Each structure stands twice: as structure tokens, then as C-alpha cells.
Amino acid sequence: MSNVPPSDPRAEFDFQPLIDALLAGDHKLALTATQVLIDRGCSRERIVTEGLEHAMSRLDDKCTVDSFNLLEIMLVGRAVSAVVHVLYPDGYAPTEGRATFVIATLEGDVHDLGKNIVRMVLVGKGFRVVDLGRDCPVENLVSAAQREDAVAVLVSGLISPVVSQVRKVRPALSAAGLGELPVVAGGAALKQLQPRALDVDYVAENAFDGARYLERLVEADERS
């Protein structure tokens, strides 16, 4: 598949075939729908924010604490990953980059679709991203941030019980001497709350919103 060309941000595109294919867990159909959008000039940012993230929001409505269909999550995850790989073919963590971020879905949450998109977007922008996966204990996140000399810590959460884990991150970082390290949160369960309620620096509305915040953070650090 070809690279996504620049597009008019005002142009209209039909994202529904992609959303439907993703929610059906049909990765082949999702790739076909993605190629149609690419061929029509849709940017990869819009494919992510209006296609992939919209589908995950719909999935979130179904995957509550009381009704969590792991098979459905896995099938949708495979489809999402296939599309992300097309949009960001070089989206694997480099050994070097503009700056290093550590990212994880915290303990108690096995969802990692949104986290994976954030990782791919950041890698596509030239950053190094250390991905600790899902169901990650807070202490592992802190250890990795220290070990990898990270410039920020990123946490993702789909289900509300993970909120209590997010609130443990800042105290744990402070205990390790990393109290000034920026913490960015994202995901359906977390973006409903203000940064102060989570004890984080920023709550991202979507993957690209988070990436833009981190770019500004790194650029400010480079100027200082």
C-alpha cells in the first residue's frame, strides 16, 4: 500500500466502511477500506482520529467492567494493528530518537489498542518509545522511566478501575527522584477526567493531541 498523501483538511471522506470493518474484526476488509481512503487523499491523521479512534470509542461502549469480551478486543486489535502498520510502516521503536518516552496500560487493564496507536504515531514522528505493554504495575513503569532516561511517562486506560492506578504514578515517580517527570494520560476512561483529578500533567483527547503536546514539551526542552 502507498504512503498517505497530503489532503485538504476540509475534504469529506466516508470513514464508515473502515469503522464497520474494524468493529467486525475483519482486518482484510479494514485494509481495503484504508486503501480507498488513501487513494482519495485522506491524511493518516484523519484515518486515525476519525476512523480507528472512533471505532475504539464504539468498542469502549460495549467493553465495560461487567461485559468485557476479550475475543472481540483481540479481533479488533488485529484489524487496528494491520491498519496502523500500513499508515506507519516504519513504526517500530528505534534504538535512538528525538527523545524517549515510556508508555504502558496500567495494571488492571488489558486494553492496549489506543496505546499501540500512540506508540506508532510517536515513532512516526521520530521519537523512541519504550512500550511496557498492558496490565503493567506502576513500579515497572517507574523503573523503566529511570532506566531509559525517559523525558515523559505515558499511561493509557480504557476501563475506570485503572484510574486509581494512574493516581499512584506521580507519588511513585517522586519516591524514585523523578517527581518532575511529565505524566500524560489518555484513553476512554481517563480523558473523562481533568489532569488534577488524575495527578498528571496532561490528559490527551486522542493520539495526535497527545503527540502534539509531547512535541511541544520536547521542543521547549531543546530550546532551554
Question: How would you portray this structure in words?
Answer:
This protein is an alpha/beta fold. It has 2 domains: 16-87, no CATH class; 100-223, Rossmann fold (3-Layer(aba) Sandwich). It is built from 9 helices and 5 strands, in the order ααααβαβαβαβαβα. It has helices at 16-23, 27-39, 44-62, 70-87, 113-124, 138-147, 163-175, 195-198, 207-223; strands at 100-105, 128-131, 152-156, 183-186, 202-203. A 5-stranded parallel beta sheet has the order 2-1-3-4-5, with helices on both faces. α1 crosses α3. The radius of gyration is 17 Å and the shape is globular. The protein starts with 15 loop residues before the first helix and ends with a helix. Mean pLDDT is 85; it is low at 1-6.
Order of helices and strands: HHHHEHEHEHEHEH
Determine the structural class based on helices, strands and strand pairing.
Answer: alpha/beta
* Biggest sheet architecture: 5 strands, parallel
Q: Are there runs of 5+ residues with pLDDT below 50, and where? A: 1-6
Strand arrangement, largest sheet?
2-1-3-4-5
CATH superfamily of the largest domain: Cobalamin-binding domain
The overall strand count is: 5
The coarse overall form would be: globular
CATH class of the largest domain: Alpha Beta
- What is the helix fraction of residues, given as a range? 40-55%
Mean pLDDT: 85
Radius of gyration based on Cα positions: 17 Å
Number of helices: 9
Number of domains: 2
Portion in strands: 5-15%
